Amino acid sequence: MADREQPVTLRTRKFIRNPLLGRKQMVVDVLHPSRPNVSKDELRSKIAELYKASKDAVSVFGFRTQYGGGKSTGFALIYDSNEVMKKFEPRYRLVRYGQATKIEKASRQQRKQRKNRSKTVRGTAKAKGVEKKKKK
Fold first, then answer.
1. How many CB atoms lie within 10 A of CB 26?
2. To the nearest 10°, the Cα dihedral for 98, 99, 104, 105?
3. Torsion angles phi and psi, residue 74, rounded to 5
4. In 3D, which of 111, 105, 117, 113 has the Cα closest to residue 126?
5. What is the C-alpha separation between 78 and 74, in angstroms, rounded?
6. Residue 123: its pLDDT value, please?
7. Is residue 80 classed exposed, middle or buried when 0-12, 13-18 and 19+ CB atoms within 10 A define those classes?
8. CA separation, residue 83 to residues 20, 68, 87, 94 (Å)
9. Do 45 and 72 meet the contact criterion of CB atoms below 8 Å apart?
10. Could you tell me the CA-to-CA distances from 17 to 34, 94, 105 in Å, in that order?
11. pLDDT digit string (tens) for 19-45?
């Protein structure tokens, strides 16, 4: 893990305080000349340390590394509290940070096939959707 010891510089731009959503939002420039990139988890902890916030209330996303490397740019949100974050943050990002559980459901193709099978059945059998109607 020699990568973690390499220096990383964070710069924030376009800092906005958004009281309606209970957060601070900003564009983050990450300078990492001797590393290929920086993990989102590490960025969350560094931003939380920089702004004296809890790591659980920080959300980072949309990072793109510039051509040639050495610099990445993305977006960061620092919520006032964990409850506010759970209220406003999209569910998929909460799942990424381990603050929500992923809803397991059938694949998109299976859902469409089930829908189309149920079209062929009428009445009470629609709930089952498996039985085929007999040809006469």
1. 20
2. -130
3. -155, -165
4. 117
5. 14
6. 74
7. middle
8. 14, 39, 6, 12
9. no
10. 33, 21, 37
11. 999 999 999 999 999 889 899 999 999
Q: What are phi and psi of 61, to 5 degrees?
A: -160, 170
As a three-state string, the secondary structure of 37-80 is CCCHHHHHHHHHHHCCCCHHHEEEEEEEECCCCCEEEEEEEEEC
Pick from 50, 60, 63, 52: nearest CA to 85: 60
Query: By CB neighbour count within 10 A (0-12 exposed, 13-18 middle, 19+ buried), where does 128 fall?
Result: exposed
| Confidence bin at 58 (pLDDT 50/70/90) | very high
Q: What mean pLDDT is predicted for residues 103-110? A: 93
Query: Of 113, 25, 122, which Cα lies nearest the Cα of 77?
Result: 25
Selection from 92, 87, 13, 19 nearest residue 57 by Cα = 87
What is the identity of the amino acid at 30? V
The residue written with tokens 């920089």 in the block is: 50
The pTM score is 0.75
pLDDT at 84: 92
When computed from its CA atoms, the radius of gyration of the chain, rounded to whole angstroms, is 23
